[in-house]
Design brief:
With 139 residues, the protein is an alpha+beta fold. The chain has helices at residues 2-17, 58-61, 106-109; strands spanning 20-33, 41-52, 55-56, 75-77, 87-92, 97-101, 113-122, 126-138.
């Protein structure tokens, strides 16, 4: 019970202060098949993701699966802005991890502009990674 309470407080504290709008375009896809390594490899994709106030935009969720980068609807920011880092990550409710790469400490000033990004999804047999760029607008 204490663990659930602690997780809830962390999630709420990150949700209240997150006002970034994130627009991502992923152009490269990598599959790591842990059960059958002959299926590992890269492919070109054209998938997008739009997050507004830690919710996936309805326009993203309406996209065909070949164009939609995620099925996650809600996101939680995993690092506080007052901690100097070179990446900022968000986890979606379908266990996707969106990682934004930036200069050390830039997260403390507020991200604003284009950044390299990855979106990772995993299960026991496979790990998939979408690679691309995200535009972050700090509102």
């Amino acid at each position: 019970m204490k663990l659930i309470f602690l997780i809830s407080i962390i999630a709420i504290s990150n949700t209240v202060f997150a006002s970034d709008n994130i627009e991502c375009l992923f152009t490269k896809f990598h599959l790591a098949n842990h059960a059958n390594t002959t299926m590992n490899g890269y492919a070109k994709v054209n998938q997008s993701l739009s997050i507004v106030k830690l919710k996936t935009a309805p326009e993203t969720l309406k996209l065909d699966g070949s164009k939609r980068a995620t099925n996650s609807s809600y996101w939680v920011k995993l690092i506080k802005n007052n901690f100097d880092a070179t990446t900022t990550s968000f986890v979606g409710d379908f266990a996707d991890i969106l990682t934004i790469e930036h200069e050390l400490g830039e997260n403390g000033k507020g991200l604003n502009g284009w950044y390299s990004a990855s979106l990772v999804s995993s299960n026991v047999s496979t790990t998939t990674t979408n690679i691309g760029k995200c535009l972050i607008k700090n509102t």
